[in-house]
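Example A, followed by Example B.
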Amino acid sequence: MGDYLQEKESFLQQDTGASSVLGDATTSTISMAMLFGSIIFTTASLAARLWLTGMWSWRNNDGGSDNNTEGKSQPLDTTSLPSIYSLLYYSTVFGLILFYSYICEHHPPFFHEEKTYDRDEFFFWTILVVVFA
């Protein structure tokens, strides 16, 4: 009976060998992925719906706005489709910028090497910049 329990415990502790995509991700990374992932999905589905129904033309029109308010930002109107879409669109852009910076920070395209300091090279580049600037 004791051998059976030891086998079961060792079986539960074994690693399957398959690495998870989010295995090393922190809680904040997962929450940001969930937040901006849902925003990106909502923006893409809204844009696809507008394009498929033929209502995409409101993006190119003025909408009959006064000349006095041109260039000024308007408050968010939750009943207005352009207002909601622009909020989702700019949130999507912000999320993609954060995703790009996360990829650059945590998954660099080139391996990091040990930093070395060469005083002669430093002064060469410094003088070169001062002379030609």
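Example B, a separate protein, is given below in the same form.
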Amino acid sequence: MQRVAMMEDEDGNFHFKNLSVHQVSTEEEALNLLFLGDTNRAIGETDMNDSSSRSHCIFTIMVEGRRTGSDSVTRSKLNLVDLAGSERVHRTSSSGQTLTEAKYINTSLFYLEM
């Protein structure tokens, strides 16, 4: 799976590389995409958690409604966010790749608070 990269353009706008957008027309299609995203998440084992999520997941739902016979359009957007597990490094006995992941996860969670 390709890694998502965030880039800033010359106008200060942020863009993400390696994300995908899918248009669906049924609840079933949307749920299938949600489950597909969940199966692609990185999972690791620590002393505190046998299946610790090692990646963040953002699932955005955009809904557009139109009334019959009207030109008006109503749009809504809902972000479902599941953040990677944040365990205390000294309690997990993590080392190697798991320790590196934990440091990145904790750093990214710190920046989300700002």
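On Example B: The two ends are 29 Å apart (CA to CA).
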